[in-house]
Design a protein that fits this description.
By secondary structure, the chain is α+β, with helices and mostly antiparallel strands. Helix content is 23%, strand content 26%. It contains 2 helices and 9 strands. The chain has helices at 2-27, 40-48, and strands spanning 66-70, 76-79, 83-84, 92-93, 101-106, 113-118, 124-129, 139-142, 147-151. Strands 3-4-8-7-6-5 form a 6-stranded antiparallel sheet. Strands 2-1-9 form a 3-stranded antiparallel sheet, with no helix packed on it. 25% of the residues are buried. The structure holds zinc ion (ZN).
Length: 153
């Protein structure tokens, strides 16, 4: 009787440890450099969670129709229809394409912010805030150096 109980407890412990190891592994996308021609500035932002200077990106002024891709792995991240001028000095979007990003809470600089990174390659792109003008209230504040714009025509 006692022995059977011991086996049962042992099995559920194994199950719990398996569950935790797999769920932690999937929440953390491994970062990998795919585009070998990334500049030092791009690498610093994408793999060191750096930030570009405000109003430094030409993409702030991009108004054509098309898609914004990851500068590292080329994954499609944003649609031009969801881009807007937030006045912050960084390309801003009200929503990302489904499954494009994963998020984590960032406590750097004494602030609690939600960092987001490419779901495909793990490269850091920016922070998402709850003060956007769209229906879901989101503002994706993206470093322009992490994006490549591809016009649709
Ligand atoms: Zn990527």
């Amino acid at each position: 009787m006692k022995r059977r109980k011991f086996i049962k407890v042992g099995c559920s412990c194994l199950f719990i440890s398996y569950f935790f190891s797999t769920s932690f592994a999937s929440s953390n996308t491994p970062k990998k450099i795919i585009n070998k021609s990334l500049s030092e500035k791009q690498k610093n932002i994408m793999f060191n969670e750096g930030t570009e200077r405000r109003f430094s990106s030409p993409l702030n002024y991009e108004k054509r129709k098309g898609f914004y891709h990851c500068a590292n792995c080329d994954a499609k991240l944003f649609k031009s229809d969801n881009k807007y001028d937030s006045g912050t000095g960084w390309p801003s979007f009200t929503e990302a394409l489904p499954g494009a990003f994963k998020t984590k809470i960032d406590y750097s600089f004494g602030m609690k912010r939600t960092e987001y990174h490419c779901a495909n390659c793990g490269a850091h792109h920016g922070h998402v805030f709850d003060d956007g003008p769209g229906k879901n209230g989101k503002r994706y504040c993206n470093n322009g150096l992490c994006l490549i714009f591809k016009p649709s025509d």
